[in-house]
Amino acid sequence: MPRNQLTFKKKELAKRKQQKLNEKQEKREQNKANNNKGKTLEEMFAYVDEFGNISDTPPTEKYKFKPEDLERPKDPEDEFLFGKVSYYNEVGHYGFIRDNDTRETVYFNDTIAGKVLALHQNVKYKSIRTKQGNQISEVELV
Q: Distance (Å, rounded) from C-alpha 84 to C-alpha 89?
């Protein structure tokens, strides 16, 4: 067997290596063709229509804001709810308020409430949703 002939395995390895180089070169050329360098700013803009669809053409008419568009919808958390302290731990200084209407319980502690509450005390409160559950944000005695 002559020395200048490559074995089959070496030929296959050389083919694979050349194929990878060719693929890499093709990818490089594709990236060069698809890049945004050299494009004008207007060509890179994307527009969103009133339905949320993205397009490359600017909108034909501008939206005119109405005063009601700027008003914030009424948030149920802005209203005071009424309830009664259903549980209070004097050692831990925390407890729960049970809502009069929905019968749901809301967590409180004395530092959040800003005052010491007692068992069976009627209160009005605002609550917020936290990771741990409902918790008071404001409380007043009734």
A: 15
